[in-house]
Amino acid sequence: MKDFSIIAKELRQAKHLTQTQLAMKLWVQKSIISAYETGIRQPSLDMLIKYSKEFGVTTDYLLGINNEKIITVNELTDNQINILNEIIQEFSKSTK
Q1: Collapsing DSSP states into helix, strand and coil, what is residue 18?
Q2: Which of 16, 58, 69, 70 is the most exposed place for a label (fewest CB within 10 A)?
Q3: How many other C-beta atoms lie within 10 A of the C-beta of residue 40?
Q4: What is the CATH code for 4-62?
Q5: What average pLDDT score do residues 51-74 get?
Q6: CA-to-CA distance for 76 and 18, rounded, in angstroms?
Q7: Is the distance from CB of 57 to CB of 69 less than 8 angstroms?
């Protein structure tokens, strides 16, 4: 099971954000982000929710409870959602 510090850093790096850039997005100081990523400090419930929304993952994912990521499709059209579902199904076939 991964620790929040590792998950937080991986998510930030996957979005090509610096700690400073992420701190600005979450309205905290860079030192807070650094403390999370080094495991010195644990996030509050409010901060977990901010991370969840920023990176489009569940709080369970952030806490290392499961490794399932989610894709937010709220701003997509029904047609775009259907296309994404077809792509996901195609990729699922190739991994079996």
Answers
A1: coil
A2: 16
A3: 11
A4: 1.10.260.40
A5: 86
A6: 28
A7: yes
